[in-house]
Design goal:
Number of helices: 3
Number of domains: 1
Number of strands: 5
Order of helices and strands: HEEHEHEE
Shape: globular
Strand content: 15-25%
Radius of gyration: 17 Å
Mean pLDDT: 88
Length: 141
């Protein structure tokens, strides 16, 4: 049996570089404080993007890093390739009430089903926390 070498904790200088998600979340929270994240997870192929599940979360701090967020999304039990997040807040600031979050999320889901370009109105990230943009496939001649 091979002996495993002990894992040493990462120092601040060894920590992974922030992802696009990390940068977005920190900036969004610094700019407006608490908000509600309306979340739609997607499957992505070369020519399709399909929503497969959705939820919302009240964000009260900017300290969740991408690995933890991806872990939460993995907890859905769904195989996902990307996530789009829409930030919603009260006019006076802060997270929106649960009922409002549910209704707004339902509207967003319906809009995405009608027109996938709706995804670009949110913040679209791949499994590695990198920002993406949905582009139409042009007709070939």
């Amino acid at each position: 049996m091979k002996k495993k070498s002990p894992r040493t904790p990462r120092t601040a200088t060894q920590a992974a570089a922030p992802t696009d998600f990390d940068t977005w979340l920190a900036g969004r929270f610094a700019e407006g404080g608490a908000f509600t994240a309306l979340i739609v997870i997607m499957t992505v192929t070369e020519s399709t993007v399909e929503p497969i599940a959705s939820t919302y979360a009240h964000v009260i701090g900017g300290d969740i890093a991408w690995p933890q967020m991806a872990g939460l999304l993995d907890g859905s039990g769904k195989e996902w390739d990307a996530v789009v997040i829409f930030a919603a807040a009260m006019e006076t600031g802060g997270a929106v009430p649960d009922e409002s979050a549910r209704l707004t999320l339902r509207r967003i889901e319906e809009e995405i089903l009608r027109d996938r370009r709706t995804i670009n109105a949110g913040h679209f990230f791949d499994r590695l926390g990198r920002r993406m943009k949905l582009e139409e496939i042009g007709a070939t001649h």
